[in-house]
Every structure is written in structure tokens, then in C-alpha cells.
Design brief:
The structure holds two protein chains of two kinds.
Chain A lengths: L2 H16 L8 E2 L2 E2 H20 L5 H29 L4 H6 L4 H9 L3 H21 L7 H4 L1 H4 L8 H8 L1 H29 L2
Antiparallel strand pairs in A: 1-2
Chain B lengths: L2 H18 L4 H25 L2 H4 L2 H27 L8
The chains are: A mainly alpha, B mainly alpha.
């Protein structure tokens, strides 16, 4: 997949959204179009991994654990700096959302409507950054850049990683995204508890 | 059903089918590419429909700052840790 194709399709989607059409909200029986496309993608990634007969080795696990730690440590440092810069402690749980915009926005929205909106946009932007910049990465940076995708590396950004870095890196990305997804609710909740008066 | 459980089920189903049925690599890659482009189209529409562009002001600015800071530090920490543990991290 060419980089210009990603940009062009994204811009096309933006134009559709500006017309007031949110394609992700189109749904059937409680499931949205986004859910169906995501499930199809994850199924295809699974098919690809099964075909390759890859095994999860020690190296995959080691890199995944290092990347999970990096995602949260980096997000925490970024969140703390934003707290000082923007003068609001809510920057910390927003940053710890690690790309999971639906959960983080809904959770932060309960304590601050304004910061709920910021949580949504900041985490969508994080996902977009990964989608748009990942194709530009090279060599060893391809593994480190998985941290940018955060929780989304188990679903939405996984195909981009698969197409540009191959099957082995996509396996690391999935493990990373899966564990980050499990930990985000715990860490966001802990951050909100700590900063709440 | 829990979202993470659904994702894991889809992956497992695909994985098991991939081990049993022989599917051409070209067909899988083409399918992944098409669904990825569809996904990017949906995300793009979600992004602009969320009002992020129309908002234009402080909310968008703060969101950009947080996403850039969190992403940048995540990559920096990842590169450092991968190098410290001898697992790569920018070395080609």
C-alpha cells in the first residue's frame, strides 16, 4: 500500500465527515460499520498469521513487554509535561488513554465535559499519527514506533503495521495492543482517582 | 460480548482457519489492503464529524499537544529501552 493512498483515503474520509456523515456510526443490530470492518481485518490478520505458522518466541514476548512499558512510561511523561504546560491534571488520564479514544473519552467525560472532548480528539489523533507516520519508519524504528499506536495496535493500526513491517512485527504489535487495552482502564481510573479532589 | 474478547475470537478463528485452509498470500494481502483503506476512510469521517476541525480553538490545540507529547515520549522511551535490553530500537 502506497503512502499517498493512505493520505488520499484519509482526506476523502475527512471530506465525508465534514458533510456531516460519520461512517463509523452506521450500524446494524447494535454493531457499527467500524466494528464489522475491524472484525474482518482482525480475522484476515489471524488468517495471515495462521498461514505463516509463526510461533510466539521469547524475543517477541521480550519486545512486547518493553514496548508496553514504553507506551505507558512515555504517555505518563507526556501527560505530566502537558499537566504543567496546560495547567490541568486531566492531561494525565487523557495521555494514559494510549489511543483508546472511546473508553478514555467516556471516562474523562464523567469528570469534565471539556476534557472528555479533548480525550476523544487527542486519542483519535494518536491513532492517526500511527496510521500516517508508520509507513515512513524504517529498520529498528518499526518496532519502537508500535508504542505510538498504543491500544490500537491490536486492531485499527495492526493492518498498517502488518503491511509495512511484516508478520513478525504484527505479532508483537498485537500482543502489545492487547495488553495495553487490558491495562488502559486500570491506569486511567487510577489517574482520575489520584487527581480528583 | 466484551470488545477485547470479540477481537481475540476473530483473531483465533482466522488463525485456526489459516492453519487448516491454504490461502494464497497475494489474496490475503490484497484483502487486508482493501479493508485497511476502508477503515482509514471511516476513521477520517469520524475525525472530522467529531467536530475536531470545526472546533478550531483551544480543544483542538490541547488535543494536538497531548497526542504529540505522549506519542513522542513513548517512541523515545521505546528506543532507549529496546537498546538497553539489546532488542533493537533504531539499529538497522
Amino acid at each position: 500500500m502506497k503512502y499517498w493512498q493512505v493520505i488520499a483515503v484519509f482526506l476523502l474520509g475527512t471530506c465525508v465527515g465534514l458533510l456531516g456523515i460519520d461512517l463509523s456510526s452506521i450500524g446494524l443490530k447494535g454493531y457499527t460499520l467500524l466494528d464489522f470492518v475491524l472484525m474482518a481485518l482482525i480475522f484476515l490478520i489471524g488468517l495471515d498469521l495462521g498461514r505463516m505458522r509463526l510461533k510466539i518466541g521469547h524475543r517477541h514476548l521480550k519486545i512486547s513487554i518493553v514496548l508496553i512499558a514504553s507506551t505507558f512510561i512515555g504517555s505518563l511523561i507526556g501527560g505530566l509535561l502537558c499537566y504543567l504546560l496546560l495547567k490541568s491534571p486531566y492531561a494525565i488520564p487523557v495521555a494514559l488513554g494510549s489511543g483508546w479514544y472511546s473508553y478514555t473519552a467516556a471516562r474523562v467525560f464523567r469528570v469534565s465535559v471539556r476534557w472528555g472532548a479533548i480525550a476523544l480528539i487527542a486519542n483519535i489523533l494518536r491513532e492517526l499519527l500511527c496510521m500516517l507516520l508508520y509507513p515512513l519508519t524504517k529498520g529498528g524504528l518499526r518496532e519502537a514506533f508500535i508504542s505510538v499506536g498504543g491500544a490500537t495496535t491490536m486492531d485499527t493500526t495492526l493492518p498498517i503495521i502488518r503491511l509495512h513491517a511484516g508478520e513478525e512485527t504484527s505479532l508483537i504489535a498485537f500482543i502489545h495492543g492487547f495488553i495495553v487495552t487490558l491495562l488502559v482502564p486500570v491506569l486511567v481510573e487510577a489517574a482520575i482517582e489520584l487527581i480528583s479532589p | 460480548m466484551n470488545y477485547s474478547a470479540l477481537i481475540l475470537m476473530a483473531l483465533l478463528l482466522g488463525y485456526l482457519l489459516g492453519r487448516v485452509v491454504k490461502v494464497e498470500k497475494r489474496i490475503i494481502e490484497r484483502s487486508i489492503m482493501i479493508t485497511t483503506l476502508l477503515l482509514i476512510l471511516i476513521i477520517g469521517s469520524k475525525f472530522s464529524a467529531s467536530g475536531a476541525i470545526a472546533e478550531g480553538g483551544a480543544i483542538l490545540r490541547n488535543s494536538i499537544i497531548i497526542s504529540l507529547m505522549a506519542s513522542s515520549f513513548s517512541v523515545i522511551v521505546a528506543i532507549l529501552l529496546l537498546r538497553i535490553f539489546g532488542l533493537g530500537g533504531g539499529r538497522t
